[in-house]
UniProtKB/TrEMBL annotation:
This is Trm112 family protein. Pfam families: Trm112p. GO terms for cellular component: cytosol.
Length: 50
């Protein structure tokens, strides 16, 4: 288990504060609420507004 899976519950979407889930196939985090997709680069989720 990598750290993202361990801490997924405390990560939240920077736009809407919604919960995120990990798409392991695409290696991305996706917001359950607004559907925004965040890349994971070298194991670090990029949770930035841009
Ligand atoms: Zn969101």
């Amino acid at each position: 288990m990598n750290w993202i899976e361990k801490y997924i519950e405390i990560l939240q979407c920077p736009y809407c504060r919604g919960d995120l889930y990990l798409d392991k196939d695409k290696n991305k985090l996706i917001c359950k609420k607004c559907g925004k997709v965040y890349d994971i680069i070298d194991g670090i989720p990029i949770l930035l507004r841009y």
